[in-house]
Design a protein that fits this description.
- The complex is a heterodimer of chains A (405) and B (526).
- With 405 residues, chain A is α/β, with parallel strands linked by helices.
- Chain A folds into 3 domains: 2-95, 2-Layer Sandwich (Ribosomal Protein S5, domain 2), CATH 3.30.230; 123-348, Phosphoenolpyruvate-binding domains (TIM Barrel, Alpha-Beta Barrel); 352-400, no CATH class.
- Chain A contains 14 helices and 14 strands.
- Chain A has helices at 2-10, 48-65, 82-95, 159-172, 189-197, 213-229, 245-249, 251-255, 268-274, 287-300, 315-328, 339-348, 352-371, 385-400, and strands at residues 14-16, 27-33, 38-45, 70-77, 123-128, 145-149, 179-183, 204-207, 237-242, 263-266, 303-308, 332-335, 376-378, 381-383.
- An 8-stranded parallel β-barrel of chain A has the order 5-6-7-8-9-10-11-12, surrounded by 4 helices. A 4-stranded mixed β-sheet of chain A has the order 1-2-4-3. Chain A has a two-stranded antiparallel ribbon with strand order 13-14.
- In chain A, helix 11 links the parallel strand 11 and strand 12.
- The longest helix of chain A is centred in the C-terminal third of the chain and has 20 residues, at 352-371.
- Chain B has 526 residues and is of the alpha/beta class.
- Chain B has 2 domains: 58-135 and 172-252, Glutaconate Coenzyme A-transferase (3-Layer(aba) Sandwich); 263-504, Glutaconate Coenzyme A-transferase.
- In chain B, 25% of the residues lie in helices and 21% in strands.
- Chain B is built from 16 helices and 29 strands.
- In chain B, the strands form 8 sheets. In chain B, strands 18-17-16-15-19-22-26-27 form an 8-stranded mixed β-sheet.
- In chain B, a hairpin with a 5-residue loop joins strand 11 and strand 12.
- Chain B starts with a helix and ends in a 6-residue tail after the last strand.
Chain lengths: 405, 526
């Protein structure tokens, strides 16, 4: 008797997903658990004439996968793509206290391979994890990476739904040549995120509010555990985000905590809040933190990646910021609007003049090597070894960006 | 309904579409192909009038519209025309139709150059028998009324050029034209560039003023003779009616026209501008037309930057004029704006003040049964569409479920341009725009050269010259089949084709007056 009444209190009417006149590409799913056998699905869809039957068939299949056999289901669809519908059904089912331990996974598209440790990471486009309408076109402007965000852009009450949506996006959305990144939640919730995310092979995980190397190691352990449980061998990189005074103080220790860390980045909104100072357009208040981060990253042999530029309407300001950022030693920054991508790519690319000079130096170096000379000279000038090294790096980078063949 | 279907005789036209042989009691010529139908004979003409019957002092004013309609001899079954230069802000059309209803007249054919959602009340006038049917674009509630099969006659959709052609060729005989005029004098000279209801060009009303049996000008800004400049000539006008307001200025022109903010649509606009540059179309002395849609405006903005960079200027541009075209004119990047319709306040001001900003009409720009027209002289035109199929055929009039959505506007006529570009997203929400076969054929694929989407640019295989011209440009050129396959994968398969009934509710005319396609009754609206 007791167990039955407990089960009844755990099972409840629940819903997930958004609908309404202003909502696009999402769906709201309501689940009403009940005692008698059978599933009834009521569908109202903007695309009913075209995909009504397909949505009903998908819903039945998803409920079967989730082993839900007794429920009334209402779907209000605003033109959601199949991977979104699947995520909303699963979220509603789980909120209703059903489907425990089961998943309704959409069909997988071809998943690109693991990414190189030192690949170009000029731009990474943030995609709010519970806003599916931005996902399918995210790769159109060819950012180096997309970030499916589970942290700040997701309301605390929607973390579970966003997690499933992001998981499904990793399976079903073709992000082209972009590196596929996920920003998980702060620990310990971030560890739960990893259980759903890691099996879908993101290339890189961003850990927010990183302050101590132990946190990073905790995340890496969890990634290893999930990988092992799913028989995954490929690398999943980590990019800690330093967003506090303590995080900045521990920058080197964090960057050097594991060879799976490939970059450090900074979150200026939280950092300036931690310092109780205003975030300004010039960034004077965060100059030290950013310099410290660049230095720590280079000391640990990882990339230094800058924060985001918050004023999406001001592309001139973005250009100015990103040119300064590159000059400081950063290799890229975050984007919160697709129009920022081209500006950032241009700013972080070596200039034509730099490339020309570097090519001359590299040619002189090659010539000296061939002739067996210890000293590299260009015209009447002697070139120091570090200058040669910098030129070689710059040429490599220009090649990686596709500027040089 | 059984009765209608029994009488119905359908024939297949040159595009393979089934079209009715008779519409509203008039026999039709099925579409024969581009440039194939060349009728002979003479144009229609209005009756001869005598100055003896008009006031010597030129004062043609009558107290109200009802009086004007009565004096025009309004009776059952007549054709009444109106125009859409006041767009959704117009109140003259309903004023005229309601006056007719008050006079107890029945079975009118309403022949607007386009209808708008604010004219929903025309449904009541169809229900009470005042209007028998509408020949003109229908969307929103009027479109649903038509596609649900509730209209007694069949709808006839024509392009702006096709409307002129139908009037000129005598296919449609207008008994009484009622023209809304932002400024007029008592003789009937009228102009749209001034007055509290200023709207820019009155070009859509020009044919009616020339060919209708009777012409009434309705104005809320009467000026002493002469009203100059005049686009409508008083010598063609029978009566002038003064009213407090011809419309709602806020809906006549928008304060500002907005470039799309959608990054995906901006990308389409950028591709189109880059395509014109790469194809060598953007060169000194070229010409282009772009409307007032969000993508078209963004295209103009991108092209403008490229023109400046390259140091080229256009000889003329055509609108739908907006502040973006006006800026081109003001900055010397074009010699002229040839304006078909004036969309925002900047453009209305410009057409009133700048002698290089000229009002045109469907006669000069679009009429296919004339000695040429401007549309075919334009180097490039950028248009939208609701659907494009893999054979480059375009649909602008219906949703994919068969419901009426838009009028044809100048769209069909613009296909005559040197390079016709459809700038469309590859899918909207989950509804594919690139499809196997368009729901309603509005423009034959042989006239559509380029389809630019956010996922790539498709060039009509018939335009090898364009394919060659953009080789090596780095633009993402793909086939329509390829783009279609990608979006079908994203959308979860091909969309179901909604079942349609066998009953035609409207036809789509081609620019030459032949019947290009049929719009069928759909079961319900949503």
């Amino acid at each position: 008797m007791t167990s039955i009444s407990e089960a009844q209190t755990l099972r409840r009417r629940a819903e997930a997903g958004n609908w309404g006149v202003d909502i696009r590409s999402d769906a709201n799913v309501q689940i009403e658990p009940r005692d008698r056998d059978g599933i009834d699905i009521a569908l109202e869809s903007r695309v009913e004439a075209y995909y009504g039957e397909s949505i009903l068939a998908q819903a039945e299949q998803a409920l079967e996968q989730l082993q839900v056999r007794r429920a009334g289901v209402a779907i209000h669809d605003e033109g959601a793509l199949p991977f979104v519908i699947a995520a909303r059904i699963e979220a509603a089912v789980k909120r209703a206290g059903l489907g425990d331990g089961h998943r309704a996974l959409p069909e997988r598209v071809a998943i690109p391979g693991a990414s190189a440790r030192d690949r170009v990471r000029r731009s990474r486009l943030y995609l709010p994890g519970n806003e599916p309408k931005y996902f399918v076109n995210a790769a159109l402007r060819k950012p180096d990476a997309i970030i499916l965000d589970l942290e700040d852009s997701v309301h605390p009450a929607e973390k579970d739904a966003a997690r499933l949506l992001v998981r499904n996006a990793l399976r079903a959305v073709d992000f082209g040549d972009c590196e596929r990144m996920v920003r998980i939640n702060q620990l310990p919730l971030g560890l739960v995120d990893l259980e759903e995310i890691v099996p879908e092979l993101p290339n890189l995980v961003l850990l927010p509010k990183a302050e101590r190397p132990e946190q990073v190691l905790q995340v890496i352990d969890q990634i290893h555990d999930v990988k092992k449980a799913h028989g995954i061998n490929r690398e999943i990189w980590l990019m800690p985000i330093l967003e506090s005074a303590l995080g900045i103080e521990n920058a080197y220790a964090i960057a050097a905590a594991s060879p799976e860390i490939v970059a450090l980045t900074i979150g200026l909104e939280d950092y300036t809040a931690d310092l109780s100072v205003a975030k300004t357009a010039s960034g004077a208040e965060s100059l030290y933190a950013r310099q410290r981060l660049v230095n720590a990253a280079h000391a640990a042999g990882v990339q230094a990646i800058d924060s985001v530029y918050g004023d999406v309407g001001d592309l001139e300001g973005l250009k100015e910021w990103s040119l300064k950022s590159r000059a400081m030693g950063f290799e890229g920054m975050g984007c919160i609007h697709p129009l920022q991508i081209a500006v950032i790519h241009e700013a972080f690319a070596p200039t034509a003049g730099e490339i020309e000079k570097a090519l001359k130096i590299v040619a002189a170096f090659d010539e000296a090597q061939q002739k067996g000379l210890g000293v590299v000279s260009l015209g009447s000038k002697m070139i120091d070894a570090p200058v040669v090294q910098r030129a070689l790096k710059l040429v490599d980078r220009a090649k990686a960006m596709g500027i040089l063949p | 309904m059984q009765e209608l279907e029994d009488k119905l005789q359908l024939e297949q036209n040159a595009a393979g579409r089934l079209v009715p042989a008779t519409v509203n009691g008039r026999s039709q010529v099925p579409y024969l192909g581009v440039g194939k139908y060349k009728p002979a004979g003479h144009k229609a003409a209005p009756p001869v009038r005598s100055a003896a019957d008009y006031p010597e002092d030129g004062d043609k004013r009558v107290p109200d519209l009802e009086t004007a309609l009565r004096r025009c001899g309004l009776r059952d079954g007549m054709v009444i025309s109106n125009h859409h230069h006041l767009r959704d802000g117009d109140s003259v059309a309903l004023m005229a139709l309601r006056a007719a209803a008050h006079l107890g007249v029945k079975e009118l054919t309403w022949f607007p150059s386009a209808s708008f959602p604010s004219q929903e009340a025309a449904i009541e006038l169809m229900e009470n028998g005042t209007i028998h049917h509408i020949e003109g674009s229908m969307n929103g509630p009027l479109g649903d009324y038509c596609t649900q099969g509730k209209m007694r006659g069949m709808g006839v959709l024509r392009s702006h050029g096709g409307r002129w052609q139908a009037v000129q060729d005598g296919e449609v005989h207008i008994d009484i034209a009622v023209i809304a005029a932002p400024t007029a004098d008592a003789f009937g000279n009228a102009d749209g560039s001034r007055g509290k209801s200023a709207c820019g060009s009155l070009g859509f009303a020009l044919a009616d003023s020339l060919y209708a049996d009777r012409v009434i000008v309705v104005t809320d800004n009467l000026v002493p003779f002469p009203c100059v400049p005049w686009q409508i000539q008083g010598n063609n006008v029978d009566y002038v009616v003064q009213v407090d307001s011809i419309g709602d200025p806020a809906k006549i022109v928008s304060g500002t026209t907005q470039i799309t903010r959608s990054p995906d649509r901006l990308l389409i606009a950028e591709y189109v501008a880059k395509f014109l540059r790469a194809a060598g179309i953007m060169r000194d002395g070229f010409s282009f037309q772009a409307g007032a849609g969000g993508i078209a405006l963004a295209f103009v903005d991108y092209l403008k930057r490229m023109m400046k960079e390259a140091g080229v200027k256009a000889r003329f541009v055509r609108g739908g004029s907006t502040k973006y075209l006006v800026e081109l004119l003001q900055e010397g990047l074009t010699d002229y704006i040839l304006d078909g319709q004036t969309f925002d306040l900047d453009a209305v001001k410009s057409i009133a003040e700048n002698p290089r900003h000229l009002a045109t009409s469907p006669f000069t720009s679009y009429n296919y049964h004339g000695k040429g027209n401007f549309a075919s002289m334009i180097d490039a035109v950028v248009l939208g569409a609701t659907e494009v199929d893999v054979n480059f055929n375009g649909n602008v009039v219906t949703h994919s479920d068969g419901r009426l959505l838009h009028g044809i506007g100048g769209w069909q006529n613009c296909l005559a341009a040197g390079c016709t570009i459809l700038a469309v997203p590859s899918f909207r929400d989950r509804i594919p725009v690139i499809v196997d076969e368009v729901t309603t054929l509005t423009g034959p694929g042989e006239l559509i050269d380029v389809v630019a989407t956010e996922r790539g640019i498709a060039i009509n295989p018939g335009r090898q010259d364009l394919i060659d011209a953009v080789k090596g440009s780095g633009l993402p050129v793909r086939t329509l089949q390829d783009i279609k396959a990608e979006i079908e994968c994203i959308c979860g398969g091909k969309p179901a084709r909604p079942k349609r009934s066998g009953r035609p509710v409207a036809i789509v005319k081609w620019a030459d007056g032949t019947v290009l396609d049929t719009i069928w009754k759909v079961s319900s609206s949503r």
